[in-house]
């Protein structure tokens, strides 16, 4: 199967089954924006919850934060974004399309000749000019320079400007981190590859503050821990790699960055950057705000500006990686026992949008009532699904496509011996389990993957 075909199939499955729709779809779409449907919302929520659980809830040294998206303009002057957060933009003089100059392999318009009836390789491009990626808006009714603000292009700066507040209001002691999950906005010149590069997306970021003498050690620890996180959630090792940035690639603030990259159907793409930001951000905000952002260590009596290690992940981008990783086609028997192609999303159970579906075999003989009772019981613990419409084989296929790890079927035997079948998504193996043991069976099976 060609890789473009895989991507087309994933995009079409996402729309058909309600994972992801085009933003403003009924008005023809708004380029670079995406809406998450019922299954996509659960999947995204599970990714963010897994991240929060593993990085905040189960650690003693990280606290959470939730900052405003609109921030004071000086924040972005201090951080360097107003000056430096730009991409080189070129226009094609013939078709008027815009491109990022650094993404063109040749200095020619990359559009196909069909769009350019003439000889497209002769199309001239304009000189590259710097284009700032931050979205602007205005605070209050007057639209002028004094009221202009930016939508945040990263959640990180909200953490830095609250460093003093967090230190003064909680019992954190260096080394410690502040974590935030939320929307970020970038006016990307060429949003592309489905949700991979969007104009509105979600990030999951940690700023980890440490003593300068331990910063290299923390950098290495975070790099390895973050790589392992994706492995633990089911990304195969041959599709995941860590790549150290060269000197030329480093951002203006960074003295060391590694990217966790995933092998998407079109090639390697960044999921997360782990950056050693030194004391750049706190020093800048101290300078621009005039507020003291140093840290005083009570034990050593030392005062210093902490160094920062930043693991910065894309929630929506990793969702695409988890989708690509889960997508599979195999053979399964149909209603007549003949083998046919099935599409299945082999999500890690922690991420699966629906953990179990409860299905009465037929809509009579008390089966719906029994199935509904099981459904109500399981619903107290997980997002589960009840479905009584159509042939059971077809209902299994629908759940396979949604990535549901277990299907519980109430059949004729249930009334006699109080057992149901539990079908496992990947192996399609079925076991009979007593009705009163369904909850503990699922608890055990899902907990095996709790990580
Ligand atoms: N605070 C550092 C920072 O924001 P970044 O490498 O620009 O670093 C971090 O972004 C992560 O955010 C990326 O690794 C990616 O997963 C996600 N991301 C960045 N731009 C994105 C976009 N336009 N669409 C979707 N995700 C994006």
What would you say about this model in short?
This protein is an alpha+beta fold and 451 residues long. It has helices spanning 3-16, 38-57, 73-78, 81-84, 156-161, 163-169, 215-232, 280-289, 315-326, 367-379, 392-402, 412-417, 438-447, and strands at 20-22, 34-36, 62-64, 70-71, 86-91, 98-100, 129-132, 136-138, 148-151, 176-185, 200-210, 240-244, 257-264, 267-278, 295-297, 302-304, 307-314, 327-333, 339-345, 356-360, 384-386, 406-410, 419-424, 430-434. The site of glycyl-adenosine-5'-phosphate (GAP) has 19 residues, from strand 11, strand 14, strand 17 and helix 9.
Question: Could you give the topology of this structure?
Answer:
Elements: H1 3-16, E1 20-22, E2 34-36, H2 38-57, E3 62-64, E4 70-71, H3 73-78, H4 81-84, E5 86-91, E6 98-100, E7 129-132, E8 136-138, E9 148-151, H5 156-161, H6 163-169, E10 176-185, E11 200-210, H7 215-232, E12 240-244, E13 257-264, E14 267-278, H8 280-289, E15 295-297, E16 302-304, E17 307-314, H9 315-326, E18 327-333, E19 339-345, E20 356-360, H10 367-379, E21 384-386, H11 392-402, E22 406-410, H12 412-417, E23 419-424, E24 430-434, H13 438-447
Parallel strand pairs: 3-10, 20-21, 20-22
Antiparallel strand pairs: 1-2, 4-9, 5-6, 5-7, 8-9, 10-11, 11-17, 12-13, 13-14, 14-17, 15-16, 18-19, 22-23, 23-24
The structure holds glycyl-adenosine-5'-phosphate.
